[in-house]
# Entry
Amino acid sequence: MEGNELVKAVHEQVLRESVFIDTLTKEVGRVIVGQHYMVDRILIALLCGGHCLIEGVPGLAKTLTVKTLAQVVDASFHRIQFTPDLLPADITGTTIYNMQSGQFSKKHGPIFANLVLADEINRAPAKVQAALLEAMEEKQVTIGDETDALPSPFMVLATQNPIDQEGTYALPEAQLDRFMLMIRAGYPSRTEEREIMDRMTGTAKPTVEKVCSVEELLTARSTVSSIYIDESIRDYIIDVVHATRKPGDFGLSELEDLVEHGASPRGSIFLAMAARAHAYLRHRGYVTPEDVKAVGHDVLRHRIALSYEAEAEDVDTEQVIQRLFETVEVP
# Structure
């Protein structure tokens, strides 16, 4: 099949299959007011098989959004509240001795679910965080001397509070890098907040119905992976990621002393995957530079470490990423 015909065939397939996304988003909107950006980014990660780190102050419906999404796609959901006294076995599971049979039996932890919400992940010590992140990477858990595969799809959505940092354990850069997206949830508008108040203080609480199955979601993942990315856009992604490491090579010498280290190769991989999913949500079978720019901040913001000079000059990663996209040549 010729190149143009192949792109056309994929585009038509996306148009047919992606109809359920609009229905799914509308159903989630029956419970969640606003937060379109957060819902959109969670869907991108879900379509790519990635994990999300959601940063936002309490009360922004982070937990409710994940729980509602699980109900809409008929997926299993578990919430884990991270605390300083949490143990790795509290997440992964353990073996229990049965006195009657004289044998050990295996008990799975809450990580065995399609969607796992790790609430306030930075409240737990490093050993617990490592247990979760290992499961994220390997998609399996070892309990005793047996290894069990996690369900498919499997997705971790971790939250952290950016304000109250007392008694927290910051995630190291190497662990942050395993999250596909870092989403920043914002406050609702005045109109949205009024609607939230009216819904949540009314007598009838809003509910949702299942609109798609896990199997449909896995089929959508396969389609997303076949969405066309032109060679020029692939090179554009590589240029953007390399600009985070050596900004001077791209005419951004003013950023040289502000960036301690740039994005890892996971940044390139996840940027391409997220751009494909973004195109799918817009019912397109091909990626444009606008797709890359749209997801760029979410993919890169936790992969760029700034220097003390940046802190002294009051420069943050959002500004650095914005300068990169303004300067790196678009195909």
In short: The chain has two domains: 31-200, 227-327. The radius of gyration is 21 Å. The CA atoms of residues 247 and 253 lie 6 Å apart.
